[in-house]
Amino acid sequence: MFEARLVEGSLLKKVMESIKDLLNEASWDCSGNGMCLQAMDSSHVALVSLMLKSDGFENYRCDRNLSLGINLASMSKILKCASNDDIITIRADDDADAVTFIFESPKQDRVSDYEMKLMNLDTEHLGIPDTEYACIIKMPSGEFSRICRDLSVLGDSVIICCTKDGVRFSAKGDLGNGNIKLAQSANVDKEDEAVVVDMPAPLSNQVSLSMSEDVPLMVEYKINDKEGDSKGYVRYYLAPKIEDSES
Amino acid sequence: MFEARLVEGSLLKKVMESIKDLLNEASWDCSGNGMCLQAMDSSHVALVSLMLKSDGFENYRCDRNLSLGINLASMSKILKCASNDDIITIRADDDADAVTFIFESPKQDRVSDYEMKLMNLDTEHLGIPDTEYACIIKMPSGEFSRICRDLSVLGDSVIICCTKDGVRFSAKGDLGNGNIKLAQSANVDKEDEAVVVDMPAPLSNQVSLSMSEDVPLMVEYKINDKEGDSKGYVRYYLAPKIEDSES
Amino acid sequence: MFEARLVEGSLLKKVMESIKDLLNEASWDCSGNGMCLQAMDSSHVALVSLMLKSDGFENYRCDRNLSLGINLASMSKILKCASNDDIITIRADDDADAVTFIFESPKQDRVSDYEMKLMNLDTEHLGIPDTEYACIIKMPSGEFSRICRDLSVLGDSVIICCTKDGVRFSAKGDLGNGNIKLAQSANVDKEDEAVVVDMPAPLSNQVSLSMSEDVPLMVEYKINDKEGDSKGYVRYYLAPKIEDSES
After folding, report:
1. Which has the closest alpha carbon to B234: B9, B3, B5, B20?
2. Are residues A94 and A146 in the same domain?
3. Sign of CA pseudo-dihedral B134, B140, B143, B148
4. How many Å apart are CA C120 and CA C25, to the nearest integer?
5. A148 touches chain B (CB under 8 A)
6. B179–A80 CB contact, under 8 Å
7. Which of A39, A141, B228, C29 has the fewest C-beta atoms under 10 angstroms from its C-beta?
8. Is the dihedral of CA B216, B221, B223, B228 positive or negative?
9. Interface mutation target, options B175, B188, B192, chain A, most CBs of A under 10 Å
């Protein structure tokens, strides 16, 4: 029997939103430590690694390690039926071929349950080596999201340059080329102010970019609840692009 | 001469929105009692029955019974040209082949008139038998709208189960199956609170579902003005679906 | 060397929005007086004439007259990368084949630069004769925008009739025909109130329509900053439509 109850159910909705466009299907591995998911996107450019810690749930019971093979588009559709203030419970029997999602309104006057078939997925768990990164950039997630969107107008890849003075994001393409420079101090002190602008439902206010030469960039969003307590993380590992004639 | 003047013109806009996706064209039957419209949708699953009472209008004059054959998509487009705070007047001569809509801004500084050609429609007025329903569910219209939207993710039909404890809406399909249970008390006491959530422009805060075994479900929205006074209703009669192997 | 710095950068974004759907490419002619642009739309119905006065910029330097041939869709995409509160600088060398846009956040913690290739455009500057118009209508730009949108439901041309009592806009088509009448006083006194309704980002609250029989209608929006100071204008000259059997 597996059962996990999350009072701030909107967190699961946001986590789902953050991966559903990248992954079609994935296994949620449930153990005493929590629920985790690891999968390559279909174009094999990004590795998603997601962790929801068991002590981040109000109730968490996992009698036996389970691997739930899930069509993420379907799970996302079902989670959209939960209100933002609903309590979400995930439940599965040990040998189940289905998982049940239960949504309770805060006043318990509306209780919904959705049963979804599980999939048999061949998954190989990739070992992610511990890496000492040369440079770690922490910045408001809204700012990062905006920079990516702005530069995507120019091209489909971005060069991130980290110096002592700050960070520079650059892109080029048919339209022309562009650079966005962030002064270092700004990103450290004023982050909360800047965040308000753009992301409607960020996983967290802060993103960290960890990078070294010739090693995948790690983009990490902490999953925090309203009180700011850590519930886990979503990490994206992005392989560096090999350009033929990059200056 | 027919002339009907509605100070809260937005009501007519909302009524139009509530039927225009279901019906292509229909006759508005105008008499001393008011304006009424009755028509089957093109798939012959739903019967729409709409009533705007003559005493719900500020001025109402109907010298002779009239039947105005109207393309509802066209009428809807024209009504979108009225502001929400406009006063709307509908006017037609007794033998007219056109109807005129007049929109006056509250301060009378902008007056618009739109003339629309009428259609010749063969309409048979269906007698709707008075029915004693076994069960009548009253609930916030926003809640009902949301339940239908949520369950439409799973399938295109819904089973409504009414017991002493409350109501259960169920659907199933390829994705899985789902149930939404509403406790009885909740729907009676807290309706206004719950309504705020989802419907941008409901005809009214309340919907009532009247049902009996093997009889069309009647879904009724009262048309109320800002003061809550009754101006009429929109009723949808939905034939029960005959499932081949429904459990 | 050409360099023009606009502290209220959102003005340039709005100006761009106001022409980009009408024109594909155009020359910005830069001189000591300011930046101006004049071009026919691709269907040769509208002439756009735009002026940004040099003294409307905080810094303005133009060593030699320049003509910057620009793909307006590209420029619009780049300007979308500027925040609404960014300071925008346009810079070009005298013999440059590229123009640079620099966006600075108000606190200088984010500086972006975008370089865009210039185009070689054959442009003939049309002389616009000074015209004494028989009738000039000033009205809230939101009201005008709304009238055009409403009447476009009926047909693709509109007749503007100007009398001592006010203005009448008329259109007709398959759906029927419509007239919108504005009383004269209303448009003079209450303009600010009416404007709020519809235009998300108007160039200015006021539009003026200048017209005479058989002469292009001139639709003028002043470009004003937040303090209401004039920075220039955007004018659209629209050739009157010759109807075959217009009543």
Report:
1. B20
2. no
3. positive
4. 10
5. no
6. no
7. B228
8. positive
9. B175
C89-121 pLDDT, tens digit per residue, is 999 998 889 999 999 999 989 999 999 999 999
DSSP state of B42: T
Is the residue at B203 inside a domain? Answer: yes
Locate C132 and state its tokens. Answer: 């004494």
Res A201 pLDDT > 60: no
Q: What is the pLDDT of residue B185?
A: 55
Nearest residue of B to residue A78 by CA position? B153
Q: Is A180 on the interface with C (CB under 8 A)?
A: yes
Q: Is A108–B181 a contact, with Cβ atoms under 8 angstroms apart?
A: no
pLDDT digit string, tens, across residues A9-34: 999 999 999 999 899 999 999 999 99
Measured between beta carbons, the chain A residues lying within 8 angstroms of C106 are none
Domain membership flag for residue C234? no
Closest residue in A to B193 (Cα–Cα): A107
Residue B6: closest CA among B72, B96, B79: B79
- Interchain CB contact of A198 with C (< 8 Å): no
Could you tell me the residue range of the domain that residue A191 belongs to?
A: 135-211
A196 vs C: CB within 8 A: no
Contact C114 A183 (CB under 8 A): no
Helix/strand/coil for C187 = helix
Q: Is B179 on the interface with A (CB under 8 A)?
A: yes
pLDDT of A98 higher than 90:
yes
Q: Is B114 on the interface with C (CB under 8 A)?
A: yes
Residues 6 or more apart whose CB falls under 8 angstroms from that of C136 comprise: C208, C209, C210, C211
Confidence of residue C32 (pLDDT cuts 50, 70, 90): very high
* Cβ-proximal residues to A51 (8 Å cutoff; 6+ apart), any chain: A34, A35, A36, A232, A233
Decide if B115 and C177 are in contact by the 8 Å CB cutoff: yes
Q: Mutation target for C interface from A175, A184, A185, A188: give the one with most C CBs within 10 A.
A: A175
Q: Which of C90, C117, C144 is the last residue of a domain?
A: C117
Residues in C closer than 8 angstroms to B70, CB to CB, are none
- Beta strands per DSSP E along B41-83: 46-53, 59-62, 66-71
Q: Could you give the ipTM of this predicted complex?
A: 0.83
Q: What are chain C's partners, defined as 3 or more CB pairs within 8 angstroms?
A: A, B
User: Are the Cβ atoms of B77 and C175 closer than 8 angstroms?
Assistant: yes
In-domain check, residue C223? no
Q: What is the maximal distance between C-alpha atoms in chain B?
A: 62
As a whole number of angstroms, the distance between CA A184 and CA A166 comes to 4
Residues A70 and A112 in one domain: yes
Share of chain A above pLDDT 90, in %: 67
**Residue A62 falls inside a structural domain:** yes
Residue B109 belongs to a domain with what CATH number? 3.70.10.10
Calculate the alpha carbon distances from C15 to B78, C21, C72, C144 in Å: 31, 11, 11, 18
**A61 has a pLDDT exceeding 50:** yes
**Torsion sign (Cα): A198, A203, A204, A207:** negative
**Closest CA of chain C from A176, distance in Å:** 5
- Our count of domains for chain A comes to 2
Closest-approach residue (CA) in chain C for A178 = C114
Kindly report the length of chain A: 247
**Predicted TM-score (pTM) of this structure:** 0.85
pLDDT at A198 over 90: no
Q: What is the CATH number of the domain that holds C178?
A: 3.10.150.10
- pLDDT tier for residue A243 given thresholds of 50, 70 and 90: low
